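Private note to self, pasted from the team thread so I don't lose it. Backbone tokens:
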């Protein structure tokens, strides 16, 4: 068997999986988006753009998603990078494994239980009650965009930490020592050596978190209390409650298109940024 044949044989299972579990369902949703809602719900075959014309009715869901998903990604990055840097560069090797386990421990518990824990923390008997003891009254966190933002950052933080940690852990520490020997300040070393070389981890972490946040529905449903909802919440309502499969498919396809455009622009920007990684300056 030739090398090309062996490669094709190895890729066949993954290719079939993607075809059956991704391409075909997406094709069905695409076809449904041009249909109509039946009298009892569901889908009636047709060819109409009415569902796409009604997309402004779900503008609030798109607005919340397009604002909070990028904000959540940025917030997770700002928290995850210093943590990953500490674990990879500053943390003593004998403690590193234990610290990594602590980062992943939240994943051992259902996201549903973790989200309900935040209801108590952000609810009237949590942080607001604590703030009242120091004279700050009438503060409300639960069922607000802030509560949803806190929930999504907490829920997806480990997915941002580990790709960045892997990039920083592979960083040749001799580059940092050489930078210090040549007189660079710690900040300049970080800006010109560490940060450029950790770009792949940052890109991977941001893409993972952003894509998952764009389809999130559980955390907004719990911490948003029906007042802050994402496109995922709109899809749950359209497919399971309203049973308007055609309109739900149009909303889903629009979300997929937005994600494809956003991720493509982001990856193009990262590739251009990564093109300068070889120009690492130590002075």
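Design output:
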């Amino acid at each position: 068997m030739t090398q090309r044949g062996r490669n094709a044989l190895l890729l066949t299972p993954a290719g079939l999986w993607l075809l059956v579990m991704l391409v075909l369902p997406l094709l069905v949703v695409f076809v449904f988006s041009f249909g109509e809602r039946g009298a009892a719900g569901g889908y009636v075959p047709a060819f109409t753009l009415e569902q796409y014309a009604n997309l402004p009715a779900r503008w609030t869901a798109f607005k919340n998603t397009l604002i909070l998903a990028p904000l959540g990604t940025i917030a997770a990055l700002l928290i995850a990078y210093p943590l990953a840097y500490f674990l990879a560069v500053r943390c003593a090797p004998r403690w590193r494994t234990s610290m990594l386990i602590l980062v992943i421990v939240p994943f051992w518990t259902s996201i549903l239980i973790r989200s309900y824990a935040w209801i108590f923390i952000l609810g009237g008997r949590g942080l607001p009650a604590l703030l009242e003891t120091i004279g700050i009254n009438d503060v409300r966190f639960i069922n607000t965009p802030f509560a949803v933002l806190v929930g999504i950052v907490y829920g997806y933080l480990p997915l941002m930490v580990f790709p960045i940690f892997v990039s920083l852990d592979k960083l040749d520490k001799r580059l940092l020592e050489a930078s210090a020997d040549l007189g660079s300040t710690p900040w300049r070393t970080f800006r010109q050596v560490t940060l450029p070389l950790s770009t792949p981890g940052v890109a991977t972490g941001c893409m993972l978190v952003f894509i998952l946040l764009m389809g999130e529905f559980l955390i907004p449903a719990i911490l948003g209390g029906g007042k802050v909802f994402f496109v995922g919440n709109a899809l749950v309502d359209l497919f399971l409650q309203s049973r308007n499969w055609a309109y739900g498919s149009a909303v889903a396809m629009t979300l997929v298109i937005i994600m494809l455009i956003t991720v493509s622009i982001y990856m193009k920007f990262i590739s251009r940024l990564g093109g300068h990684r070889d120009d690492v300056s130590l002075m």
